[in-house]
Design goal:
The chain has 358 residues and is of the alpha/beta class. 39% of the residues lie in helices and 14% in strands. It has 2 domains: 234 residues, Rossmann fold, CATH 3.40.50.300; 111 residues, Helicase, Ruva Protein, domain 3 (Orthogonal Bundle). The longest helix has 19 residues. The chain is elongated.
Length: 358
């Protein structure tokens, strides 16, 4: 049975997520209370759905996925931009429940305790202040359709996990205990230029230790384009910071599933030790920052760097003992190679280093 305290949940999140301390604290409490709700029979503990706002690559999806792993419940990710209002071309909002049921291997009871992460929720915001004069089936229409799902209701979904038709067999799915986490970049919401600067004692942003957090409010979300009804169904608001250079270096090396640890394991299977110098990690982090992709772009950068190395390694592995990725290798794609010690009589010469794997 799940019995972790908020501080213990925070420690589990630290194993996989770098930085975002305030977000981890908020999610730790939310997860702790959500688990209480799953075992509550009085119905007095209400559901607290969550909204995560932050730039791309800051860890929104990873936070939601890690929370689901800690709670040990099914987890489904859906893209809000792919959904349309019922009856129109595209995926109905019920697709998130179908994905959740699929992740639970068809176990409805288990799926009804799962977590759904709706990504890009900001992309379906209204662009104007008033309601649209035309039918916005992928914006307002989706927001309206999500209301009853997020609030908690019995929804009829196809039993065969296909698109709903009048002839399809359906099952009832109760979303009362499903935790919904919505995420989005909400570009422009946190811009300093968008808020009027004040002088004197009324400067509330100056009083706040986290100015970004102070700007994330239900009022701000409604002004951005979310329906008031939808914003109200997301009581827990959490803003995430853009990862710094130091944070990205730690992302590469510290988490249990860090990508550099993954590459080291791949090389070990060929009997070769892989090392990354500190300068190389810093340079990779700087590239991710310049491309504005955050942690999400780290794998793409490393794949580009390591392609030629991993292509040639199997042919050379019998003569190579170590492969060192330096800052120069980021541009040249040529690592420093340490060859295996040759067995010779009456000699103990050290292995020589050379540059280039070919």
């Amino acid at each position: 049975m799940f019995n972790l305290k908020p501080s213990e949940i925070h420690e589990e999140l630290d194993r996989f997520i770098i930085g975002q301390e305030r977000a981890k604290k908020i999610l730790s409490v939310a997860l702790y209370n959500h688990n209480k709700r799953l075992h509550d029979k009085t119905g007095l503990i209400k559901k607290s759905n969550i909204l995560l706002a932050g730039p791309t690559g800051c860890g929104k999806t990873l936070l939601a996925k890690t929370v689901a792993n800690i709670l040990n419940v099914p987890f489904a990710v859906v893209d809000a931009t792919s959904m349309t209002q019922a009856g129109y071309v595209g995926e109905d909002v019920e697709i998130c429940l179908q994905r959740l049921l699929q992740m639970a291997d068809g176990n409805v009871e288990l799926a009804q305790k799962g977590i759904v992460y709706i990504d890009e929720i900001d992309k379906i915001a209204r662009t104007g202040k008033g309601r649209s004069h035309t039918r916005d089936v992928s914006g307002e229409g989706v927001q309206a359709a999500l209301l009853k799902l997020i609030e908690g209701a019995e929804i009829s979904i196809p039993a065969n996990l296909e698109r709903k038709t009048p002839q399809s067999e359906t099952i009832l799915f109760d979303t009362t205990n499903v935790l919904f986490i919505c995420g989005g970049a909400f570009e422009g919401l946190f811009d300093n230029s968008s808020t009027k600067k004040t002088i004197g004692f009324n400067n509330t942003d100056a009083e706040m230790p986290d100015g970004k957090a102070s700007k994330l409010s239900h009022e701000a979300l409604v002004k951005f384009g979310l329906m008031p009804e939808l914003a109200g169904r997301l009581p827990v608001l959490c803003s995430l910071e853009e990862l710094s250079e130091n944070d990205l270096v730690r992302v590469l090396t510290v988490p249990d599933d860090a990508i550099t640890k993954e590459y080291k394991m791949l090389f070990e299977k060929d009997g070769v030790k892989l090392e990354f110098t500190k300068d190389s990690l810093v340079k990779i982090a700087k590239e991710a920052i310049s491309s504005k992709t955050g942690a999400r772009g780290l794998r793409s950068i490393l794949e580009n760097i390591m392609l030629d190395i991993m292509y040639n390694l199997p042919d050379k592995k019998d003569t190579i003992s170590k492969c060192i990725i330096t800052d120069k290798c980021i541009e040249t794609k040529q690592p420093t190679i340490v060859k295996k010690r040759q067995k010779r009589k009456n000699t103990t010469t050290a292995a020589k280093s050379s540059t280039g794997i070919c």
